[in-house]
Amino acid sequence: HEILGRLRELCIEPITSEQAVAQLIAAYDLKMTFIQHPFMSITIRSYLAYLRDREEISVRIENGRLVWQRC
């Protein structure tokens, strides 16, 4: 899946959930409304959790933020 591949690439370096969402929205040149943005954020976080469950990336909490990185 293309999105999973992009997330794997983004996670080479530590990245927060918010940064991952922002970079994917920019990469696809998406125009988000106030209503759409939370749904996109939840979807991307679900993909990140999936990659974590597959042990492809790890997650930790830093300064109150989730930080993802490739294992």
Brief description of this entry?
With 71 residues, this protein is of the alpha+beta class. It has helices at 2-10, 17-27, 36-53; strands spanning 15-16, 57-62, 65-70. The two termini are 19 Å apart.
Question: What characteristics describe this protein?
Answer:
71 residues, 3 helices, 3-stranded antiparallel beta sheet, alpha+beta
Write the topology of this structure:
Blueprint: H1 2-10, E1 15-16, H2 17-27, H3 36-53, E2 57-62, E3 65-70
Antiparallel strand pairs: 1-3, 2-3
Helix pairs in contact: 2-3
Commentary on this structure:
The longest helix is centred in the middle third of the chain and has 18 residues, at 36-53. The chain is globular, with a radius of gyration of 12 Å. The protein contains three helices and three strands, in the order αβααββ. The model has no long low-confidence stretch (mean pLDDT 97). Helix 2 (17-27) crosses helix 3. It is α+β, with helices and mostly antiparallel strands and 71 residues long. It has a three-stranded antiparallel β-sheet. The chain has helices at 2-10, 17-27, 36-53; strands at residues 15-16, 57-62, 65-70.
